[in-house]
Known about the structure:
This protein is of the alpha/beta class. The protein has helices at 42-60, 76-95, 105-113, 120-131, 139-167, and strands spanning 2-7, 13-20, 26-34, 64-68, 99-103. The chain has five helices and five strands; from the N terminus they run E-E-E-H-E-H-E-H-H-H. Strands 3-2-1-4-5 form a five-stranded mixed sheet.
Amino acid sequence: MRILGIDPGTRYFGYGVIERLPEGRVRYIECGVLEPKRGAELAERLAEISRGLAEVIAELAPTVVAVEGVFHGVNARSALQLGHSRGVALATAGAASLLVHEYAPSTVKKAVAGNGAATKDQVQAMVRALCGLKRAPKLDASDALAVAICHAFGAKVAGAIAARMLRR
Length: 168
C-alpha cells in the first residue's frame, strides 16, 4: 500500500509518501512542501496547491490518502483558511479517485510519538527514525509523513512501535 500523507496549509502544504511493507515497517518514498507564491490571493494559492498536489499524485501514484484534520485552538480566520486548503486536498484526491482518511492531530502525534501532546520536534524525530532518514525533513513534510505513518499502522500499532523505539 502506497500512502500519501497531507499536512494542509495555505502557505506551507506538506506531503509525504511511504509504502507499508508486509513485515510491519514503512519505506520512505518522498516528501516535500508546496509553497505557493507569497502575497498571492487565496484563490491563486489554492490553485497552485491543487496543481502541485495533482503532480505529486500523478508522479508518485499513491493508492490512498491520509489527511490531518482541523485542530482546535486556532482563530476563526486561520481555521477557515485551513479548511480551504483541506478542501483542495480532498477535491484533488477525489478527482484522482483516491480514498481519503482523516486523522486528528492528537491521534497522529500519539501514533507516531507515543504521546498525543508531542511537540513538532518529537514527531519530526520519530518520523526520521521510522523512515530511516539521515536528516529530518522540513516540519510540514515530517507532519505529512506522520499522517501517512499513522494510517499505515493505525494509531494503536504505530503508538506501540513508537513506544518501543523510545525505550531503546
